[in-house]
Amino acid sequence: MSVSAQKTRFCWPMERWPMRKLWKDALRNFGGIGVIFILLTVGGWLIFMIILPQLIMLDFSFRPLLPLRKLGGPEDVYTLKNYILLFTTPLHRAIFFKTIWASVIVTGVALAICYPISFYLAKVAKGARLGWILMGLIIPYWINELLRLFAWQLILADSGILNQFLMFLGIVSDPINFRAGNGAVIMGMAYAYILFMVFPLYNAMESLDRNQIDAARDLGSSWLRIHWRIVIPYAKPGIAVGCIMTFMLAAGSIAAPQLLGSPSSFWFTQIIYTNFETANWNQGAAYAMILAALCLVFIMIMLKVFRVSLKELAK
Amino acid sequence: MGQANGQDVEIADVSMRYPGSKRYAVTDVSVHIQAGEFFSFLGPSGCGKTTLLRLVSGFIEPTKGEVLIGGQNMRGIGPNKRPTAMIFQNLALFPLMSVADNIGFGLEVRGVSRAERMKKATELLELVDLPGVEKKKVSDLSGGQMQRVAIARGLAVQPAVLLLDEPLSALDLNLRQHMRSELRKIQKRTGVTFVYITHDQGEALTMSDRIAVMTDKGIIDQVATANTLYNNPKTAFVADFVGENNAFLANVKEIINGYALAETSFGLLKGRNPQNLNPGQRTLAFIRPEALTLREGAETAENVVKCIVKNLSFEGAFITVFLKVGNDNSVIMRQSNDGSTPLLKIGADVDVCFSAENTLLLAYGEVADA
Question: Domain boundaries in chain A?
Fold first, then answer.
């Protein structure tokens, strides 16, 4: 009995490796020319658009900044100097960590705003109303991000609409300088990336069976518990995707801090930008790599926190 | 078991019109469901059965009329506060929770400790004859097992009334028949009032203490036991919808000692006249397929019609004979097969007879689409 059971379980290692099957399926589905075309286009795109530029940046990041004539010379060796600089420069370090927590706040604010919107869209709104709200969400995004940020500038300016309104109501006597701290930048980003949070959440919630909410309610559950026990666990992959996208966009944003920020709200991307602008590509590349690594770490943390696998994420 | 005993449900003059809709989904429904009863609402799909169930469970409030459970008016009381539990058509089990967590959800809401919930889940799984699956994921269960888990989850909150929304419709035929008797057993064991809705008359007839038949206008035509519904339907709709029936359009001609003579396109039929129809009224004459027999020799019967055999379907214990009478009126006759019943020839002329007692004349009206 046990022998035969073992026999059936045994299989050649090659059969576990699905390459041959993949290849055969591809040939059957697309034909020889099709397969060559796909390999050339996808392969070309992967190599020239993604892998190669990143590798060049990686190479840059480990080399010192040298004058042209010294390139290839004895000083042109791999070094960690560019990376270490982040930890030895207090200002850069402070801005780096500020960027992290501010991006986390942006993500949190966007999640707090988008969760109810998404739930309303996915499970409450119906028919024409759903269409109108979706349009209302999308239309502002027909305008370029820069223009939207300029609009925020107008709203938040000393003589802007918000200050005038507050003064009209008599709440404040002098205009508030909204752009002094990080508030304006965080607000602007939360606004700019709302869609990237709404749609993953909406997608995830939309397929939730309405009967499950009703069943929980019928069993005596409060609305809070329905969300905590039924909706949020179900929408977890969507929440993870939304948070990852918003965080990466926020951490990698340059326009919002540039337009809405003040010198005190400097963003890590602005340091990278300055480096490239002042022709210190090596330093810029190293910092860009650190930012990429940060985003990778954030993805891993999100997957861990939400106990979501990469496969679920792809849905 | 510690289950709360069932309570009665009074549906008093309830009408329901959804906001924005012109048509009433449920019209003037008045039913009193006894405590501990297995009560079914039977009707074609779209007749407002589900609406009625949602009215009792509290997901919607009636436009008119009241729902009382255990004598208490339920107006303004939400579904989470009513002594009811609902079994959804698609069961609506929580896919991300274990079986035990599913069953314990209603108790979790009520602040019952985890150990207590596990104990209760084990107890309930035994009650529904599905012991030992506490730790399993819902998706690892078969259709019939999910069914039992859904019932256990509903019973866990000790409802006075369990509302079942066609829960067997997703199962295959064998399982469905098995679950019928299981449901009945569970209901007897717990004493909870079961309110069951279905479009499947087989389900309603086999399980229920009483059945309410609803027409597709959301009106209740008759509330009675299965036996009464089958033998003494009150309206043409019930006669047509419950069980198989031959229906012939006719006009009442004459009344003789409680029976009536009705004129069809192929001659006179004598039948019972429970509605006291008067001569001249349009009527439908209903005769069950099993009430039809072949005339042997010169035997006399109250009703005899000449038919042509169109087709046969041999089904073992019985033979269904498709006949034609008059100008293309189709008739179905069911012969029981005792092993020596000869098969009729297709195209043969036969005399089919049936008693006046088995012929039911009811006022012409709306019938269900067969």
Answer: 88-314
